[in-house]
């Protein structure tokens, strides 16, 4: 007889998901009601309002797409890009490459601005591409590249797009809730994120926001949106239809309870305090890594505090280290992707995983694993270095 699945207890410090607070899990266990129930509609409006606060926007079209961050990405492209369009796509990691794939699947031409993995998007290259392709529909870029831990200058890139008459499409999957995402201040047009990173909810929802300019582009399309499920002209009748909502799909009711609770917790902490917390945990982690002689892929000026790509020392079996952390400590960190496979560990400090306990636990476990592989390190020194910052 098949038994109920009982997952092991893990400490999640990879590139996502992050640890989920018991309040969020408890919220998801609340009674399921109908997706057109008047009380559920009240909750939907609260989710929208709290997402607007998190995005720092007044955009009316702000909603969580029923699907992970990849669904939010696809929603942005299929709603705004039509066959024959040209889109300038900045690629400096895995997720910029996925943007390019979305553009091409929309029947549009992707003009790629390529930068080395671990480097932010080069503003001069992006501007040159926009100048070389007047009439480009959009400039697409990743604000926080999860594959490398690098932050690009979102405000300047959005300004470049607007100066050249293009929309800006921004991947904020790893940034929302961890570092400033200032949609209206940047003048960003389409921004998408994910529930499982710095919002510290379960995976499966993708907050998205569209500017009025993006909405106008959607309204004046020449062709139907190629995805029925992700067509915002249909979805907004459900998410923005006042008290009377037009049925579109059965929303993931209990998952939305969880997102609501995670946004309530973000509001209680204060989003600026959340940014500060992520930064402080990053500095503490870095202090411990430096004691072990470990460096980061990204230069200090462009590092994400919530996603740290740690360079694997010569002679160390990176996969064996990750396996040991999981087996002996229940601790998950991430491997490198693509060109960085085998070269970095990706250590996430996101949401509920950005705490002093997480930092010191990770450092102690990593230190022990490296000693086991023959590195000469002083036991306890890494966590002590972190604590000197954390206890100030």
UniProtKB/TrEMBL annotation:
Enumerate the Pfam families for this protein. Aminotran_5
Cleaved signal peptide residues? none
UniProt keyword annotations, A-Z? Aminotransferase, Pyridoxal phosphate, Transferase
Listed cofactors:
pyridoxal 5'-phosphate
Q: Give the SUPFAM superfamilies listed for this entry.
A: PLP-dependent transferases
Q: Provide the residue positions that the database annotates as binding substrate.
A: 346
Q: Which residues carry this modification: N6-(pyridoxal phosphate)lysine?
A: 197
At the top level, the lineage of the source is: Bacteria
List each copy of the Aminotransferase class V domain by range. Answer: 32-336
Q: Gene3D superfamilies, alphabetically?
A: Aspartate Aminotransferase, domain 1 (3.90.1150.10), Type I PLP-dependent aspartate aminotransferase-like (Major domain) (3.40.640.10)
GO BP terms: namely: glycine biosynthetic process, by transamination of glyoxylate
Any GO MF annotation of the entry: L-serine-pyruvate transaminase activity
Q: Does the keyword Protein transport apply?
A: no
* UniProt record similarity statement: Belongs to the class-V pyridoxal-phosphate-dependent aminotransferase family.
Question: Mind telling me what this protein is named?
Answer: Alanine--glyoxylate aminotransferase
């Amino acid at each position: 007889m098949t038994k109920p699945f009982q997952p092991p207890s893990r400490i999640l410090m990879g590139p996502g998901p992050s640890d989920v607070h018991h309040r969020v899990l408890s919220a998801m266990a609340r009674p399921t009601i109908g997706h057109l129930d008047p009380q559920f509609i009240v909750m939907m409006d609260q989710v929208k309002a709290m997402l607007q606060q998190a995005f720092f926007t007044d955009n009316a079209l702000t909603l969580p797409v029923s699907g992970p961050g990849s669904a939010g990405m696809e929603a942005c492209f299929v709603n705004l890009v039509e066959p024959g369009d040209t889109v300038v796509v900045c690629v400096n990691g895995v997720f910029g490459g996925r943007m390019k794939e979305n553009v091409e699947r929309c029947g549009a031409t992707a003009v790629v601005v390529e930068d080395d993995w671990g480097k932010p998007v080069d503003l001069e290259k992006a501007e040159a591409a926009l100048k070389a392709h007047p009439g480009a529909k959009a400039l697409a870029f990743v604000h926080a590249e999860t594959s490398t831990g690098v932050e690009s200058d979102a405000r300047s890139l959005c300004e470049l797009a607007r100066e050249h008459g293009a929309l800006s499409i921004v991947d904020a999957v790893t940034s929302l809730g961890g570092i400033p995402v200032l949609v209206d201040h940047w003048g960003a047009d389409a921004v998408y994120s994910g529930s499982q990173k710095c919002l510290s909810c379960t995976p499966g929802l993708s907050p998205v926001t569209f500017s009025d300019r993006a909405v106008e582009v959607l309204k004046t399309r020449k062709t139907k949106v190629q995805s029925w499920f992700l067509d915002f002209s249909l979805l907004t009748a459900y998410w923005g239809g006042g008290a009377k909502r037009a049925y579109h799909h059965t929303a993931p009711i209990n998952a939305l309870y969880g997102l609501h609770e995670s946004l309530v917790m973000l509001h209680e902490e204060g989003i600026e305090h959340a940014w500060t917390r992520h930064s402080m945990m990053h500095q503490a982690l870095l202090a411990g890594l430096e004691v072990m002689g470990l460096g980061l892929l990204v230069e200090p000026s462009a590092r994400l505090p919530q996603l740290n790509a740690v360079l694997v020392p010569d002679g160390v079996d990176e996969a064996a280290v990750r396996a040991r952390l999981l087996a002996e400590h229940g601790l998950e960190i991430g491997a490198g992707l693509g060109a960085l496979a085998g070269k970095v560990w990706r250590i996430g400090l996101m949401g509920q995983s950005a705490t002093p306990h997480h930092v010191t636990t990770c450092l102690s476990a990593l230190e022990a694993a490296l000693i086991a592989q023959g590195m000469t390190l002083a036991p306890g020194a890494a966590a002590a270095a972190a604590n000197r910052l954390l206890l100030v």
